[in-house]
Amino acid sequence: MSHSSASTLKPTLRLDARIVPDRRRHKRYTLALLGRFMRANKQEFPCRLNDISVGGASLMSPVEVEMGERIVAYLDEIGGVEGQVVRIFDGGFSIALRASQHKREKLAAQITWLINKDELGSAFGRRHQRIAVANKTSTLILADGTPVACKVLDVSLSGASIGTEARPPIGEVVMFGKLRCKVMRYHDRGIGVQFLDIPDPEALRRYFG
Questions:
Q1: Residue 76's closest CA among 186, 158, 131, 155?
Q2: Are the folds of 6-121 and 128-208 the same?
Q3: Per-residue pLDDT of the chain (209 residues; tens, 9 = 90+)
Q4: How many whole angstroms separate alpha carbon 35 and alpha carbon 4?
């Protein structure tokens, strides 16, 4: 790790000291999730989540950011989070999250779900069994905003199989109806997507039932 200049190190340490109490209040959980983040100049870059709490997050990225810069990140299975850069380290940075009480409660529930889902084993798999949907149509909104008519082949709480001739790049974020998704694979009839925000089961049932 290269030594930072004194002018860079001082504000980093000073701001880092300010958020130590925040770290004590909010336990951080290691979650390796892929995503993208938008800098203050509206440019977007890929990133990977290292750890997160309701008060902050640590992101890995090859792009250098500025101390105090406002960052908006979109993380797989969590959705959008917003914050200010409070620490910079080799290969990434940390942000202090800005969120309403409602958003923090939702984030806490999502983190709990994500860290526990592997331990749920087969019960989780059964709850997320895909259900075939007959002749249901929807709209796929591509990353550039282009709407594409599509067919819903099957759906679950974790994702869906979509009948379409469109082939957005693997990993691209699209809108499937009102749900934000990531393209995970191609198949002979279309694409498979993973929901990035955990949908409400009842709303999902009403929409695709």
A1: 158
A2: yes
A3: 444 444 444 343 333 334 344 444 567 888 888 889 999 898 999 999 999 999 999 999 989 999 999 999 988 878 889 999 999 998 999 999 998 888 888 888 888 877 776 544 334 343 445 565 656 888 999 999 999 999 988 887 778 889 999 999 988 999 988 888 889 888 888 998 988 876 666 666 666 65
A4: 27
Pairing of strands 147-155, 131-141: antiparallel
**Core vs surface per residue 94-120: b (16+ CB within 10 A) or e:** bbbbeeeeebeebbeebbeebeeeeee
Contact 163, 188 (CB under 8 A): no
Burial 72-86 (b: 16+ CB within 10 A, else e): bbbbbbbbebebbbb
CATH fold for domain 6-121: Thrombin, subunit H (2.40.10)
Which CATH class for the 128-208 domain? mainly beta
Hey, where are the domains in the chain? 6-121, 128-208
- C-alpha 169/C-alpha 185 separation (Å) is 9
Q: What is the DSSP string of 39-101?
A: -TTS-EEEEEEEEE-SSEEEEE-SS---TT-EEEEEETTTEEEEEEEEEEETTEEEEEE---H
